[in-house]
Hints:
The protein is mainly alpha-helical. It has helices at 13-28, 31-40, 42-45, 59-70, 73-81, 98-102, 109-117, 133-141, 144-152, 167-173, 177-185, and strands at residues 124-126, 129-131. The chain starts with 12 loop residues before the first helix and ends in an 11-residue tail after the last helix. Mean pLDDT is 84; it is low at 1-11 and 50-55.
Amino acid sequence: TERVGQLPWHTDEQTRMLARQLLASAKAGDLLTVDALLRSDPEYFSQRYSRVEDSHISLRNEVLYHAACTGNIALVAVFLKHGADLNQPRSVDDGEGVVSRIADEDQHHAMIRWLVDQGSEIMHIRNGNPVSRSLIVAAMGGAILNTRLFIERGAPVNGRARNGLTALDFAINDGRTAVAAYLRSVGARCASEVRD
């Protein structure tokens, strides 16, 4: 059986070259090459990518993140056509997919809106309570457009992160005054003000 850290795509130069080629093509926005590579070996690109033991993310989904960062919706659509999962968390603790990884900057707002429209989840259940990692990441980054989008789409405004803090706590702690003011205006509270 395979040990964590010894993944099939690390075993030979040809597969490592495929991985590098896919990543470089995605970052360059080369739709044709990305499409051809994903078509060439679907099984390979669906293998677990990370060496981290609790990671579930496939190589295809790891590169999907980089594609999303380009803002190129057509490129991301190619990944979805080839089976990329918008909601595949990077690890067990993440709970949400690609949107939560790019939510910290409003420069990704158009992509995030498109991804949410395609069914990307913006909340999950942690310890029996709804929480939005995407909202928390947006609040920490001061991304007011993304914060508003997540609230408008139903993200729990007082959901708690693993450490027990809310999006408002993170916005205040990181000096994101505009985000903190908006969160207060929609009923957000600090963890010390929220009853379990």
